[in-house]
């Protein structure tokens, strides 16, 4: 996609005319080949057939008044007709030559009574094109002369309807602020640069919603996904661990890239994409490997960067177009929404014509279009562009490329606009000629760190500006800047001013986001990152103000992540599937108009999404009976997660029954070590929905955090509006007052109460399976509480491990233990007086597996059955041990404890009251039935029925909690001394040596 070492993927004249005769051999317009013509000099003769232009309308239709700008849409570079034909001089575009010296494809030129050469020629499109191939690719216009293009000459008078579009393209139109995604690419090889070295930990993730690691490859015959470079496996854990700093960040892997389709790789991967996508079996092999790769390293999605399907100069074949659609379709079906999918698009017609845009758009989350590298040193090798200095990114040419998407009815919200954090540089032929369209001799001097002639990173460009005290020139029409130095050096690039121009233009076109190639090309001071957020020095914002903005944004995003992770239910409601109970209350949530306290025995539950780690939590702010509570108070080292005018804690075993209500103010549920859910948080800075009106007096920000931007500029404020931090109206007022109010109730505390939501959130999994109670019960938590009457003489308890509640692997381990390891023993006991027994069978694991070899970041936990709280776990009695997902283990632990509180303990109290000994009731262990179609049923039902299925299939090899699967790892030093982390192929079984 974006390897700095490759030449252009997007070339001069984004829309270039295809060859006039189908089947003629196209030349590579991207790679640097031997020049067709000598480099221009003042002594080079220039051929102009003026008479041909006067008499041949075909020439006029295909030539622009200014060929140097590339506005002659879709012109193929090496076959532009430059004159008429004559005996012995055929039409250079391959058309028929008539006896009148006119080139064309109609009977007037190709008829037997008038044609003198190329008489079998067919038009590229339209009525005189070969049957079955008469329509223009990408729905561009077919001119009356039989050529595909997008200018007025092609699309207006004489445009052949039915062979493509006709008329001007209708651009989408929006107001500002439509963009929500910011995707950064990280070059894995940046970690090995001699200077400006960048590790994943060096990346400024503050402005990003997504971060793509470039690149991974796959084997050309086995189709197994592999790292691009040997050291990449050491970078993956660092890369995906960035999500711990920003829970809304998504980390993706980009597969492919420009060099992957080179013929010089070993093994040769040039046709790997075509071979893989060419059959259903190969696609499934690749997808299975890709899914395992993403699970292993914790990636959230994949960007497919095939450069390019269908293009014969890049190893492509005609069937690639349809097969690419099949590939993304199969990926979407296989992932089931668990992983994101995007594809990378070129902005040049020459390569984009092989993409079925509409077919692909239906199966991907978004489309990344590379709107950069329009010009570069490769222009010297092309006779239609020539060795002329031009910026590598130009909004006019970019919009011509985007028009190809609009002609195919692509939703602009699905499109991400490309920004380059680097420049294309030249060495000028004449140092006195330094403006665009001056002649260059060759590429600019290589940067001290990127070490590539013709390319400079933004970090290198900023050092050049500082060293030479340069004042950049801005081209507001092209929306780009350039500088010259050292007598003959020239480079174009983007900074805060031009980046914001492009973002504004993209927003007006309703685009969904931007992508950056590449974030590792920024300086250590994050100049380009500030530019992207609109708070760079080029935007007139001081470094102090930029720092204040960043701190405010981080604080607010943290609050948004918390509010997206947890919510309060209505009184008596249970948590939605995929959410688990963390606390209970009976009062009101502050700042919610019309909110009421719970009546009777009903309580409301604070529910947090799967993937949330709450840490250590407690209620704070209670001042005593009849006293007001200390609102928004949390002890040092903890942070506010939720508020309520009441806190409700019940634990009969510990003789705790607290039902504390404030006489004014609210209590705070505070946690230390709280990690928001990456699953519940989206790529937008937004709240969980609250459909009710927010009162005007609370719509301003409750924490009232004020940041003084003494030298604040409208651009800086606009950046805050774009980020969703303040309203546009607030921006205007605050800038005028030299003060911007940024803090909010941390996006949810003041306006709606942190996490408050008045409709149940979308379930993260299937609906809950809760049995109908047969007695009156309090509606508290996940389990309803049993109430026994005076006529009840005894009771029994059964714990059902319920599938579909985000801890399937725990149920599978229990089922395996009971059915196989413990000879179908279902009844267990809980009479211990001293808590968890010591020196259990589970503790043997420590002597057989060194726990330090397992990376805690890979979310693995050790699960045992019988549970440690059961008598049968004491005295080194046999337990079945399994490695499981730590989050699932935690969720199940809460479920088990709630069951003990709501079912087992009430039964124990009844038996005590009736004098039954022992009062502790036996516990029957069972599990809920599988849903129809469950793999574990299928396996058991397959013949031969007299043979048990393999235990991995029968007992939940694939049943881990989706999105946070447990993959044990170990880390060691290789022969070179590098630290390498490997993932175990064993996904949970054989925790002990005698396991099957």
Automatic annotation (TrEMBL):
Catalyzed reaction equations: Random endo-hydrolysis of N-acetyl-beta-D-glucosaminide (1->4)-beta-linkages in chitin and chitodextrins
Disulfide linkage: 91-103, 96-110, 115-119, 136-148, 141-155
Family, per entry: Belongs to the glycosyl hydrolase 18 family. Chitinase class V subfamily.
TM helices/strands, residue ranges: none
The Chitin-binding type-1 domain, residue ranges: 82-121, 122-168
EC numbers for this chain: 3.2.1.14
GO terms for MF: chitin binding; endochitinase activity
Name of the protein in question: chitinase
Signal peptide: 1-23
InterPro entries: Chitin-bd_1, Chitin-binding_1_CS, Chitinase_II/V-like_cat, Chitinase_insertion_sf, Endochitinase-like_sf, GH, Glyco_hydro18_cat, Glyco_hydro_18_chit_AS
Sequence ranges assigned to domain GH18 in this UniProt record: 180-536
The entry's keywords: Carbohydrate metabolism, Chitin degradation, Chitin-binding, Disulfide bond, Glycosidase, Hydrolase, Polysaccharide degradation, Signal, Virulence
Pfam families the UniProt entry points to: Chitin_bind_1, Glyco_hydro_18
Domain of life assignment: Eukaryota
Organism whose genome encodes this protein: Aspergillus sydowii CBS 593.65
